[in-house]
Amino acid sequence: MLPLVYNELHRIALNHMRRERSDHTLQPTALVHEAYLRLVDQKSVTWQNSAQFFGLASGMMRRILVNHAKKRQAAKRGGSVIRVPLDAAGASGDTGDVRLVALDEALNTLAARDARKGRIVELKFFGGLTMKEIAEVLQLSLATIENDWRLARAWLYREISSCQS
Questions:
Q1: pTM
Q2: CA-to-CA distance for 49 and 129, rounded, in angstroms?
């Protein structure tokens, strides 16, 4: 099955990695392989269509990247990390990890309040699915998906902006 879906999984991984810092230790290929290994372990999933599979793969990739960012942040807070003066720390370019974790936390809050909007954001933003594909996966009208996407995007923007100020 992997040869049939690999190119699309790689495209999704590239989409995820575009939002990451340039010196990220994970490469798109490694992200694809890690997500695929987790997907083949799924015993209780009944695949309905390819959009569902790729949506789940994108969610796996998101969790892998968020876990990676959280581990990186935790490692910086102690252990064998070299201490850096505050003026040098601002130039380190580590804001990507912080933004990804903030987005993940905001998306989790949104999903707790409105699971459908949370799923739409995950499929669109992280999965790179089109609105039509999302409508197919969630079995909803295109108009409903587009409306929910606008509302969710505005809510996330407000939520993340309030955390940063």
A1: 0.57
A2: 13
